[in-house]
């Protein structure tokens, strides 16, 4: 009996969150051969230690490595200490500033300490590509580079754009994909993992393996994980990253700040839930059976527990909920008076903007709101249609232009619920003009204020 699961069962786990596999049929064949021979596949993912800390974006690949590890295959955590001297040109429109050897070595040590929060240290092969690249002399480098042409290198998107824009391309940058490709030859890889932005580099490994008489590796690519802003790739330099070494409370708080839309992507790539389970949660939220905030709290607890343990995750979850409520009740969140006339919009204007949304104003007394829109009633914010963009601007949380973008990005909530529409609708029957002012807890990203509307 084979020590490995049937191919279909292995593929079910390996295909989770995979953006592209080159080629699926090859991977199935290699897995089948592995079952017959009992030889585990050699699977690598490389990480250049260009910064001291890893973030959740890095863990997408690490988690996929762990999937292979859980299936009984040999995973290789490759530290690109030699390629860091060049600097990966992926996604760069200028040449990277080179790091010193001391910086690289120091960062590499921190990587080793962090990666085993995800991988099983006893079953992980840790390698440094200086082991073979550092031994290549001029003759060896010439022989390796002879398998590629300059025109091939210029087909790479980053190089092509810089060439067309007449921006400098350093000669050593052209060597990076070749050196990464040679890593696969040196390690005799069956599979290499990488982000979708790494496809050119990964393909170089397949090409070189053919030249060296090896079976070309299978490429498994994962999507790029967006950072807290939900737009750009997670990166510490963009200040939108969640470091895996961050304290539990900080990690939890950052996760609670992401948009509802981004939450589902984090569920897929940063948890062990199967796609069907994530889809089930998403359906519960859509049907109103599960509040989005509860789904997000569950996500935050799960991720924090993975790095800091269940006890720490539970403690920070309870503390976050308590502190969030206490801040509002105790008045720790700043209250700002807002004149209703500065944020109210006409009913017809909002309907025009929101046309096609069947549930919009579903709970409204339409006659009341028409009269509100015409300005026939003057309430203390009891009933009305408000511009969320204007509200955010009046609270000083963002400019009107930024507010519109933040709403689209899902970074705005009112009274704990995500605000997807540029209009906030206050339902209910009209009250007397002297009624108490309406208070709304408005959160934009990590910042929150209480709007006292009168």
Descriptive key words:
454 residues, alpha/beta, Rossmann fold, Tyrosyl-Transfer RNA Synthetase, six-stranded mixed β-sheet, five-stranded mixed β-sheet, 20 helices, 13 strands
What does this structure look like?
The chain has 454 residues and is of the alpha/beta class. The protein has three domains: 7-227, Rossmann fold, CATH 3.40.50; 248-329, Tyrosyl-Transfer RNA Synthetase, CATH 1.10.240.10; 335-453, Structural Genomics Hypothetical 15.5 Kd Protein In mrcA-pckA Intergenic Region, Chain A. The protein is built from 20 helices and 13 strands. It has helices at 7-14, 24-37, 56-70, 101-115, 130-133, 138-145, 150-154, 157-164, 171-187, 199-211, 248-256, 260-270, 275-286, 292-308, 310-329, 340-343, 347-354, 366-373, 388-395, 400-408; strands spanning 20-22, 42-47, 74-79, 124-128, 191-195, 218-222, 335-338, 384-387, 412-414, 417-418, 423-426, 438-444, 447-453. The protein has a six-stranded mixed sheet, with helices on both faces. A hairpin with a 2-residue loop joins strand 9 and strand 10 (417-418). Helix 11 (248-256) packs across helix 15 (310-329) and helix 14 crosses helix 15. The longest helix is centred in the last third of the chain and has 20 residues, at 310-329. The radius of gyration is 27 Å and the shape is globular. Mean pLDDT is 82; it is low at 354-382 and 427-436.
């Amino acid at each position: 009996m084979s020590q490995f699961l049937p191919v279909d069962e292995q593929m079910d786990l390996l295909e989770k969150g995979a953006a592209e596999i080159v080629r699926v049929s090859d991977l199935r064949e290699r897995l089948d051969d592995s079952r017959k021979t009992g030889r585990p596949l050699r699977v690598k993912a490389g990480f250049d230690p260009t910064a001291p800390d890893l973030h959740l974006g890095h863990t997408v690949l690490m988690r996929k490595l762990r999937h292979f590890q859980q299936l009984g295959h040999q995973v290789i955590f490759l530290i690109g200490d030699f390629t860091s001297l060049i600097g990966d040109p992926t996604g760069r429109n200028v040449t990277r500033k080179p790091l010193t050897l001391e910086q690289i070595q120091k960062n590499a040590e921190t990587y080793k300490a962090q990666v085993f929060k995800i991988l099983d240290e006893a079953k992980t092969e840790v390698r440094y590509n200086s082991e073979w690249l550092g031994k290549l002399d001029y003759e060896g480098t010439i022989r390796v580079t002879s398998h590629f042409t300059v025109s091939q290198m210029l087909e790479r998107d980053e190089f092509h754009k810089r060439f067309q824009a007449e921006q400098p391309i350093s000669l050593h940058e052209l060597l990076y994909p070749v050196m990464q490709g040679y890593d696969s030859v040196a390690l005799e890889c069956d599979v290499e993992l990488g982000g979708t932005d790494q496809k050119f580099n990964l393909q170089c490994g397949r090409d070189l393996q053919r030249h060296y008489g090896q079976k070309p590796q299978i490429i498994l690519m994962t999507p790029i994980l967006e950072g807290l802003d939900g737009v750009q790739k997670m990166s510490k330099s963009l200040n939108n990253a969640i470091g895996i070494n961050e304290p539990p409370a900080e990690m939890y708080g950052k996760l609670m700040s992401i948009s509802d839309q981004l939450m589902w992507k984090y569920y897929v790539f940063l948890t062990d839930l199967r796609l069907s389970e994530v889809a089930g949660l998403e359906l519960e939220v859509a049907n109103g059976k599960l509040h989005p905030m509860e789904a997000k709290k569950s996500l935050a607890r799960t991720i924090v527990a993975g790095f800091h343990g269940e006890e720490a995750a539970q403690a920070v979850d309870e503390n976050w909920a308590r502190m969030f409520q206490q801040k509002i009740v105790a008045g720790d969140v700043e209250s700002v008076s807002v004149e209703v006339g500065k944020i109210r919009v006409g009913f017809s204007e909002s309907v025009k903007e929101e046309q096609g949304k069947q549930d919009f104003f579903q709970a409204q007394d339409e006659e009341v709101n028409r009269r509100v829109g015409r300005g026939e009633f003057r309430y203390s914010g009891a009933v009305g249609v408000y511009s969320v963009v204007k509200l955010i601007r009046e609270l000083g949380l963002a400019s009107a232009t930024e507010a519109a973008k933040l709403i689209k990005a899902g970074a705005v909530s009112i009274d704990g619920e995500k605000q997807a529409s540029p209009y906030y609708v206050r339902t209910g029957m009209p009250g007397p003009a002297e009624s108490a002012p309406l208070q709304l807890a408005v959160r934009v990203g990590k910042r929150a204020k209480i709007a006292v509307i009168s």
